[in-house]
Amino acid sequence: MKTVLSGIQPSGQLTLGNYIGAMKNFVKLQEDHRCYFMVVDLHAITVPQEPAQLREQSEAVAALFIAAGINPEQSNVFLQSHVPQHAELGWLMTTLTNMGELERMTQFKDKSVGKDSVGAGLFVYPALMAADILLYNADLVPVGEDQKQHLELTRDLAGRFNHRYGDYFTVPEPYIPEVGARIMSLDDASKKMSKSNPNAGSYIALLDEPKVIRKKISRATTDSGSEVKYDPAGKPEISNLMGIYSQFTGLSLQEVQNRYEGQMYGTFKKELAEAVVATLEPIQQRYRDIRESGEIGRILAQSAERAQEAAEITLAAVKDRMGFLPRKR
């Protein structure tokens, strides 16, 4: 059984992009993989976070994982900070990482542009991300296109460690679904749908009420003309909406195109909204049930305990190979 690891930051509301690009795939992968799904709260603090909001969002993201269909009896759902081996291996990986590798990270460039001061954590956190993956010797890592660069660094660090200290780490492979890995903004299909976008109309949050979802989709930007045709280069806006429709109905893009041949955008957008609402309403109800039950604390604790057992084995082996003196019991 291969091992899968992935995580989502608890900063801002989770969106359709998170669901389609990550969580929907998590549910599929857990059937025949050993899965570790994290709320990466240590990554979140690379930019300032309000403490109460960080606590609330961390619990909310974990509850949404489970509401979306991740079974905590099959998979491990835990907070990154609850497994201290992440931070320790993160430091060890930082010492193996070159400055030039971190300087080339496009996410760091994008997030630091125009700022007078940038925290060191934002610069070095790709080494912590590498540690997250290598701590469980993950075979597959579900990533969006924007995270492929970080996974390449992880692969490089795994190879560097293996060359220097002897083969130990699995060199992970990306898991990128053909459709849906990159859902774009509702107001600008040249930009990824992001929970950090200041324009709330640019994304659909998983906890948006049905009337809000319908309004956002009705106002979503469309290309000139009225043909529902999948053409990412020529018609990026409607192609993005068709990708969402495909993910929520199970129809292929060609089948979506055939269904709306000769029809206007209005009909398509109305039925897209209903397809999204029909999927999200049960998830939202399960989310409310989980939060009200108070079970999320127990689930996180049990998963963290299982994850820590696996993580400690890896960390001990890494420290031994690097020459650290073990503590006497």
UniProtKB/TrEMBL annotation:
It catalyses: tRNA(Trp) + L-tryptophan + ATP = L-tryptophyl-tRNA(Trp) + AMP + diphosphate + H(+). ATP binds at Q9, P10, S11, G17, N18, G144, E145, D146, I183, K192, M193, S194, K195, S196. It is found in: Cytoplasm. Keywords: Aminoacyl-tRNA synthetase, ATP-binding, Cytoplasm, Ligase, Nucleotide-binding, Protein biosynthesis. One of its GO terms (cellular component) is cytosol. GO terms for molecular function: ATP binding; tryptophan-tRNA ligase activity. A motif ('KMSKS' region) lies at residues 192-196. L-tryptophan binds at D132. A motif ('HIGH' region) lies at residues 10-18. CDD domains: TrpRS_core (cd00806). It holds the Pfam family tRNA-synt_1b. One of its GO terms (biological process) is tryptophanyl-tRNA aminoacylation. InterPro entries: aa-tRNA-synth_I_CS, aa-tRNA-synth_Ic, Rossmann-like_a/b/a_fold, Trp-tRNA-ligase, Trp-tRNA-ligase_bac-type, Trp-tRNA_synthetase. Its EC number is 6.1.1.2. Belongs to the class-I aminoacyl-tRNA synthetase family. Homodimer. PANTHER family: TRYPTOPHAN--TRNA LIGASE, MITOCHONDRIAL. NCBIfam families: trpS. Catalyzes the attachment of tryptophan to tRNA(Trp). This is Tryptophan--tRNA ligase. The gene is trpS.
